[in-house]
Amino acid sequence: MLSQQVLAQPLSRQMRQALSTFDEETRIEQLCGIEAMAQIVAASKQFQPDRVVAYAMADVKVLRGTVLAEGAAFRSAHQWYGLTFKCELSPDRRTVKAFEFSLGDAIPRQLWEAHNLPPIH
Questions:
Q1: CA 81 to chain centre
Q2: Buried-exposed string 94-121: b where 16+ CB fall within 10 A, e elsewhere
Q3: Range of the domain at 16
Q4: What is the count of structural domains for the chain?
Q5: I need a surface site. Which of 35, 87, 100, 104 has the fewest CB within 10 A?
Q6: What's the pTM value of the predicted model, to 2 decimals?
């Protein structure tokens, strides 16, 4: 899985520190978001995601160490796109063990505010 490689990089030091301070729900959503961004880059050079919102279009489900985000979104080049993913975590919920995803269409700008999708950082 790619999130471990991303987090091992020196530039990820702040994110590693932040993850350790989050409550479990936030930590696993962030970890799966990091995995999603890394997987998107690896699968398509068209995108350079800088943010993932797992709950953008639908609630996230966490079932026995698996995060299901059927209404996620990711931002690339100031445009939001639909995303679905299934992120399976290790028993201690600290690493990603399996990841599946599919990319969606661009989300129209008029929907961004209603779904808490900021136009910039």
A1: 12
A2: eebeebebebeeebeeeebeeeebeeee
A3: 3-115
A4: 1
A5: 100
A6: 0.88
As a whole number of angstroms, the distance between CA 79 and CA 76 comes to: 5
Is 65 contained in some domain? yes
Looking at the chain, the whole-number percentage of residues with pLDDT higher than 90 is: 74
How much of the chain exceeds pLDDT 70, in percent?
99
Instruction: Annotate 58-74 with b (16+ C-beta within 10 A) or e (fewer).
Output: eebebeeeebbbbbbbb
| C-alpha separations of 9 from 5, 14, 22, 68 in Å | 7, 11, 20, 27
> Above 90 in pLDDT, residue 3?
no
Partnered with residue 6 across adjacent β-strands are: none
- Name the band, by pLDDT with cuts 50, 70 and 90, for residue 15: confident
Residue 78, in any domain of the structure: yes
- Residue 27 falls within a domain, yes or no? yes
Helices (H), the chain: 3-8, 13-21, 24-43
pLDDT > 70? residue 100? yes
